[in-house]
Design goal:
Length: 112
């Protein structure tokens, strides 16, 4: 983003920075989107297991269903290197941080 403010507009270098920045942004967004989807879908696992007609099944299956419901109470969260969760909230935080860095670099460049 910062490089776009330095290069001459509407040149090949300008367009290559736009394409590169868009690709990076899309890649980060896709990971965060699907991480959010995994968490959202896994939140519904215990409800789906409980809706199963487990009352007429064998005792062994009933115990397994109860165990499944108990273990799936906590939703699955995808992480990146065990540092942060991949979700849309994380994507927004990344964008805010990137914009803060951009504003800082742009401000420092305008002082020169």
């Amino acid at each position: 983003m910062y490089q776009l403010t330095i290069v001459t507009p509407f040149t090949s270098e300008f367009y290559s920075f736009i394409v590169y920045g868009s690709a990076v942004l899309m890649e980060i967004f896709l990971y965060c989107w699907f991480g959010n989807e995994v968490e959202f879908k896994s939140f519904n696992i215990p409800f789906a297991a409980f809706e199963f007609d487990w009352t007429i099944s064998s005792i062994g299956l009933q115990k397994k269903i109860i165990f499944l419901i108990a273990k799936s109470q906590r939703p699955i969260r995808m992480t990146a290197l065990s540092l942060f969760h991949l979700s849309l909230e994380t994507f927004v935080k990344i964008l805010r941080t990137a914009y803060s860095y951009f504003a800082l670099l742009n401000n420092v460049n305008s002082l020169n």
